[in-house]
Amino acid sequence: MLIWENVKLALSGLLGNKMRSLLTMLGIIIGIGSVIAIMTVSSSLTTSITDEFAQMGANNITVGLKKQSDEEETRSNGMKFGASNRQISLEEDDRITDDMITALKKKFSTSVDSISLEESVGSGTVKSGEDTANVSLSGINTGYFDANDITLLAGRYLTDKDVKGKKSVIMVSDKVVDAIFDGDTSKALSQKINIDINNVYYSFYIVGVYEYEEDANSFSSDSDSDVTTSAYLPITTGKEKMHTDDGYEKFTVVTNSSVASVTDFADELETYMNNEYYASNEDYQISTSTMSSMTSSMNDMIDTVSIAIAFIAGISLLVGGIGVMNIMLVSITERTREIGTRKALGAKNSSIRLQFIIEAVILCLLGGVFGIILGFILGAVAASLLGYAASAPVAAIIGSVVFSMIIGVFFGYYPANKAARLDPIEALRYE
Length: 431
Prior knowledge:
The chain is 54% helix and 20% strand. The protein contains 14 helices and 13 strands. Strand 2 and strand 3 form a beta hairpin. Helix 10 packs parallel to helix 13. The longest helix has 44 residues, at 291-334.
């Protein structure tokens, strides 16, 4: 009951000086609003990245080569050098072979759905008269379509027969069809196209057209006519035409539902490959990564930056808290006779102290609520402008409410304690 009476007294005091109360809350509003706006953008970005990586394949494991860790080595003359001082070039013997991949798939057949292979062939330009389209050529196998979400619009996907036969066939995007064939996919199928790669022309027959999806996180300003899209050909064809080395620098494992932990399975694959094939390799070893680990790393970086910025913005909360303390001291001075009257009528020091602490808490709490609303609106607008769906930072909102109350107690205690220690006789004499 006492608390409710103090709440009513606090509200009455704040409403009696509306403008002063609003200006006092302004520091709290700005501080909380800034923090919530930053955390809203951060939360929206994190959610977007998580969803994007999930679409790319949450069950995918990338297996690739990496240089051995920099370890100090001692030469015959006694001088010591770090491994980084050696120039290490990737030799054909270092590359991952088809036999290694076949053996891995056989050993882990109950856990692996497919293996995705991709080899960059180069960037070029599709030319047909005056019409052109920019493409980035990738040699792939059929497992690539299991690891990546590619929507077929017309024709067919590449097949094992295409790969084994090293056929000169290609899949292009709808952007290429728009530029070269006026958007007519049926006209594009089975057509021969010439691609200029470093002034050398390569010919392919179109067997499929897929839907190009712009990366939601890209900020490219290229027009549709200038955008570069991927074009897919059999990996064997790409290696033959570009005369690249046998083997691969990396591949992707697509796991099935029987794998309980993709991260643990990735560690198992890494150990197997290193023990079986790279134990004696002094230059390279196998490393694995998963979408979940990549997502976690990126989210950690975003969170770190956001917290740092939010901390800086939160400094204004201290300024707001000092403002609350100052106004409470002024309020106590103005209400000295009121305090004296209450104490003369029997009010305890604890009651007086509680009254002004509650008043400070309500002042900060209202500022916190307004700050949360303002911050979320600003954060949602910023997220929308960046192309992300607004995501409310629930933990930050709850934390802001609690922090507002703490600020109220902390900066309100001194003025409240000063009011509680007033001598009632002196207070009644105060003019």
